[in-house]
Write a structure and sequence with these properties.
Number of strands: 4
Strand order of the largest sheet: 1-2-3-4
Strand content: over 45%
Structural class: mainly beta
Distance between the termini: 39 Å
């Protein structure tokens, strides 16, 4: 953080892959339709989930 401002960096591929907010990386999770269905912090483990539509 510089001068009370939050620094955000976006990591992109075909879609948004991750974001870094003041050094904390968050990954975007997608379903087969390309919708964002979840977020995962870099230090978390991905667990199996059942998605109900």
């Amino acid at each position: 953080m510089q001068n009370n401002a939050v620094t955000v960096t976006y990591i992109r591929g075909i879609n948004l892959i991750a974001s870094d907010v003041d050094g904390v990386r968050t990954y975007y999770l997608y379903n087969a339709h390309g919708d964002v269905v979840g977020l995962m912090l870099a230090f978390q483990q991905l667990r199996e989930r059942s998605w109900v539509n």
